[in-house]
Design a protein that fits this description.
Chain lengths: 436, 429
Amino acid sequence: MKKKVIQKTRGLSRRDFMRTSAAVGAGVLALRTSRIYAAGSDTVRVGLIGCGGRGTHDTTKCLSSAENVELVAMGDLFKERVDRCRRTLQRNLREKIKVTEDTCFVGWDAYKQVLACDVDMVILTEPPHFRPGHLKAAIEAGKHVFMEKPVAVDPVGVRSVIASSELADEKKLTILAGTQMRRISHLVEGIKSIHDGAIGELVGGQCVRLGDGMLGWGANTRQRQPEWSDMEWHLRRWLFLTWLSGDFIVEMHVHNLDVMNWAFDGPPVQCVGMGGREVRTGPEYGNVYDHFAVEYEYPNGVRVEYMGAQIDGLSGRNDQRLVGTKGRAYTDFAGVVIEGQNEFEYAWDRVDPCIKQHADQIAAIREGKRLNEGRRIAESTLTSIMGRMSAYTGRALKWDWAMKASKLDLSPPKYEFSELPMRMKEVAIPGKTQLI
Amino acid sequence: MKAKANRKKQMLTRRDFIKTSAAVGAVAMASGTSRIFAAGSDKIRIGLIGCGGQGTRDVVSCVKSSPGVEIVAMGDLFENRLQQSLDKLRKEVPAAVKVAPEKRFVGFDAHKRVLQTDLHMVLLTAPPHWRAEHFGAAVEAGKHVFMEKPAGVDPKGIRSVIRAAELAQQKRLSVVAGTQRRHSKKYQETIRRIHDGQIGKIVAAQGYWNGGDMLGYWKWYDKDGLSDMEWQCRSWPWFTWTSGDHIVEQHVHNLDVINWALQAHPEQCIGMGGRAVRNLGNIYDHFAVEYEYPEGVRVSSMCRQINGCTDRVAERVVGTKGAADVDQGVINGERPFKYDGPDPDHYVREMADLVQSIRDGSPINEGKQVAESTMNAIMGRMSAYTGRALKWDWAMKASKLDLTPPKYEWGDLPMELEQIAVPGKTQLV
């Protein structure tokens, strides 16, 4: 089954390759992918696409992770974001910021303009909705990519990310995803020990993340301005719109579900979920839910419970637990505790995983090593998306169906500052919202 | 079959008669447990407190379960409910209906008047809010009890049920609860194997009641000129103070099976829930709760009452050597099992077990067990309503939650009895 998918996407990739070659030209392509080696310089030139808080953060970490990494271009939908991000970066990173007025871009095409600059690598940190399109363009343009999680908001986007990831392999481009938990030392060691059988065969698990309501997010956009179109209002409040963020189970809790997929060494087989919004009910909170509970079934009938909420005043929790035939593993940001026949405790080595992930990528680029997390993060993103789809519709659904058959595509009819159709504003109603 | 049962019953009865005499004393006994035998009759005279659909069905099951069961008194808050129930019983089990007009009681004290009549056993099937009070009164009056689940709606009520169950023990009264899965052959055979270690050490479990919105089963009355009290009592499933919410009212069945299989109650829980669709009353329409049992065993519970969703009503227990789909009577793993024997009507069987225990004079007492399963559900609801994790010991001993209205009379009720809980805002009491 898997093989068939790969063949199909490879087919697409080859076609895309030809198209790209025709469009961009073989010379550019060669230049792009291997410029740093050909030029005999080891400077990695970075472009930033998406200049919000996370983009600023990721650029800072990336440029701090290794010598001779420079930011040379940046783009965002909104000018003030570019300006603010540029000021912050210049203040903190000074000579590593080589951005000029000519390499700062604003608007719907800003990402294309960044990609047309002389950059080796791009950081993709626009809201999740844009990730599949930006990734595709970046890989076609021959750039290495760091992309924030999640990498899509719907199955159509997930499939696109997988296709682009396969193209990246063909073009020997690296793709790193912003799931820094994969580089927290105790998780790396703890999950390796689970894979090595420390708790026996996995028979259950829990993944719980209960946190505050994020009500302070975007305080200055909470009130819709009269001149803002639907599109502008949505983009400024993107965290609370499903078509832009994927809802918080996707936007934030993909981290935790990615850890579960990591432990199980693959995605779930099916899921059934529920959820709703009890507290974040105002129009400023768009159409996302504030709580989800999803049961994921992994291969061999192993059921894993996920609970997530963003509501002020809850008993907070953020941990994952794996249950095996020979013990249990508790995992969180502080450590991994193995109980049972092979008791052990792994503590964090205090190395910043956000720095580590970028250092790994810069090294891979310089050494020409394969590093491609595209499919893996696409699968974890789909894990989150299918949980949301199940909660929104009230329907159980299968991984294979979501991956191959679902037609859900949350894209707007047009990318322009205009009104948006009702479907993009409505809050999902279980039992009524259709599974697409 | 019948003759044999009678012989057994007589033998046991005689033995028990002696035992009971010694233990409780002739006075208590004469008024209560063994009066039927002393009187030389083997009729079981029952009363019904709560004449709704479930109460009426329970009487029918009881009559069908054993020979010689007669219903002699009935009580309900509402005259029309009592009359509907009576009409239905006359149609379905006419020979067993011996309810004289003066033994039909209506109003807030109907239960007391039923208990004053000459009967051996009562069926407590008023809405869950009243269970604790009715059960206490029934045990006080020396009656054997069948009580529908759940056993209460708040910790205060649960504590009262547990005390009354202990008193029933002392008085040698039988108490059977309407958690009828406990009387299913399929469940019994599967859970016996779990207890015997057939799936190894239990490490996880799941319980579900994901179903429809219940509008076809639970009546809703518009306020429309009714007093608050009448409106909410008639629409009882839809209000938390009367029903306990659906996690308590309905999902308690599945949680009870989990407690049974794990031979324990949870130590703590954290839950969530809300109203995604429902707009009647103040109950939620979905809950998800993580329960933690002794030795860190976590159990996942999900319940939903929304139409058009994927339904699942089930219990599953996971062990180190296999997993049991208890509701299907199936065990997978190292030692697979599939129950394929008969599984007679659980509702009839629970009544047969109860009546037999009365006749045998060997009481069974499910009071504490159903109180604990109910508490399990209540603490899940409390956690979802408030967004707070909580511990069993706190809920059982320290929680002051008491959903009783200030007065039982046909008038206004305080607003908080119809408010919808908001996680993070509603206080844990």
